[in-house]
Amino acid sequence: MNAGIDLQGTFIQSVTDLGIPAGAAKAIWMPLPMVLMLIGATVGVLVATWLERKISAAVQQRIGPEYQGPFGLLVPVADGLKLIFKEDIVPEAADSLLFTLGPIIVVIPVFLSFLIVPFGQHILIADVGTGVFLWIALSSIQPIGLLMSGYASNNKYSLLGGLRAAAQSISYEIPLALSVLAVVLMSNSLSTVDIVNQQSGYGILGWNLWRQPVGFIIFWIAALAECERLPFDLPEAEEELVAGYQTEYSGMKFGLFYLGSYVNLVLSALLVAILYLGGWDFPIPLNLIASVLGISDTNPILQVVTASLGITMTVLKAYLLVFFAILVRWTVPRVRIDQLLDLGWKFLLPVSLVNLLITAALKIAFPFAFGG
Amino acid sequence: MLKFLKQVVDYAKEVTQSAVYIGQGLAVTFDHMQRRPITVQYPYEKLIPGERFRGRIHFEFDKCIACEVCVRVCPINLPVVDWEFDKATKKKKLNHYSIDFGVCIFCGNCVEYCPTNCLSMTEEYELSAYDRHELNYDSVALGRLPYKVTNDPMVTPLRELVYLPKGVLEPHDVPQDAPRTSSRPEDLVEQA
């Protein structure tokens, strides 16, 4: 199979052709995808918040934002500007160092996780060998930030909120990791690119969704809990409590939490798309279409089309999942803290363990279908 | 062993049942997405209040006989009736009349009991003011008629529930000549 577009290779090649050494060329290349990813993630968040408002409105038979730009598209911008210009208050008795560090520790790992999100064979920042494992490791840094900000606020509600958030994050990390493990077992690799490649070739039929239906559901539930999305948003239940660990935060520090939670949602949706919905893979195998139309694999137009279609497909799948998360938000009532921990430890954990064992057994029994 | 298996089966049944319920819930919320928003976009669209709407009270100064029945039936004795006895005509002469709409609960008792029908309910409900004392309407302010929504060129009037055909809850896409459910007041007069 042809590798498709390799932007990095082409870029470095063209820069070295200008007479610049290869190492320097690579150094020039490096910041470009990083900045692009940062911008992409932020724009993704803006779109997600807009969707959240519009879809929530539609579900409740309202109109939602309408007059701020076409279809209210400028609402997220207004949000961001408001948060930036607000006074940045640190409570007098708070530990100002930890108070500042908390939101930063929450946000940075989420953005860092975008390293491993592939939009195509070569359209990702780093094809790390330990891809998904890196993501799991990074996402377990988050509870430390939550605890830190809860503790540093010097407020009992914040501290309790922080503890709850940390308890939630930790207890849902395990089923999440176990369901990822089942996928990894099937694709014999932790790398996200390999996981997608293992799913591609048969179009929609090859996606992990069909081989890992239980894993898919567990992963999605656990991901919602990790993002503190509505059925599990009890650390800062909007309608019921003060905002948990976010109580004392305002201005851009609050903005970081807000940004972090939405980036996390988009990231989780992207990862579900990659792990279970075939990533950049088109529902009908593109090779098949190309061979039916009689187009060669190395045709430049085909490659550009494949690459842009790949990016579109990944983003489309991710936003479909975001849509689903918003729909779930207005369908399912919020769980209590004991129900939350019950669901995590007594249901998701054993089920995901059984799922992992069954996957291993199936892999031995039917190596052709389960990546032997 | 059998008991344990039964427990497992029961648990699995429970789980599937709750999954089905969540699925049904999602179907409901998804279905709601296709419905038209019922939002009335207020400053640009306004509902036409029904005939029984209890809005700001209208007062006709010349009809009033200063009997103070309105004050007696008012739950909080709100209307202020300022009169003096005119010895020449041997009748009460009304000087001032006022109602504070910041305190009024729009129960309509005064309108109901007024012997000369000098009090009536209007369809005016936009009573916002910068100062609560501005809501204390004197007899001149009480005598003003509200501006009709249907006459306002800036506003798209929408029919309220009483004016809509049977079974219709949403005023946006109803044709202008669609008949309302109940009879119009003039029809009721004819019937009597």
What does this structure look like?
- The complex is a heterodimer of chains A (372) and B (192).
- Chain A has helices at 7-17, 22-29, 31-59, 75-85, 96-113, 131-139, 142-152, 156-187, 192-199, 208-211, 213-226, 251-276, 286-293, 300-329, 337-365.
- Chain A is mainly alpha-helical and 372 residues long.
- In chain A, α4 packs across α12 (251-276), α7 runs antiparallel to α8 (156-187) and α11 (213-226) packs antiparallel against α12 (251-276).
- The radius of gyration of chain A is 22 Å and the shape is globular.
- The two termini of chain A are 21 Å apart.
- The model of chain A has no long low-confidence stretch (mean pLDDT 86).
- With 192 residues, chain B is of the alpha+beta class.
- Chain B is 28% helix and 17% strand.
- A 3-stranded antiparallel beta sheet of chain B has the order 3-4-6. A two-stranded parallel ribbon of chain B has the order 1-7. In chain B, strands 2-5 form a two-stranded antiparallel sheet.
- The chains are: A mainly alpha (372), B alpha+beta (192).
What's the topology here?
The complex is a heterodimer of chains A (372) and B (192).
Chain A: H1 7-17, H2 22-29, H3 31-59, H4 75-85, H5 96-113, H6 131-139, H7 142-152, H8 156-187, H9 192-199, H10 208-211, H11 213-226, H12 251-276, H13 286-293, H14 300-329, H15 337-365
Helix pairs in contact in A: 1-2, 3-12, 3-14, 4-12, 5-6, 5-7, 5-12, 6-8, 7-8, 8-9, 8-11, 8-15, 11-12, 11-15, 12-14
Chain B: H1 2-33, E1 45-48, E2 57-59, H2 69-73, E3 80-86, E4 91-100, H3 109-113, E5 119-121, E6 136-137, H4 139-142, E7 156-159, H5 185-191
Parallel strand pairs in B: 1-7
Antiparallel strand pairs in B: 2-5, 3-4, 4-6
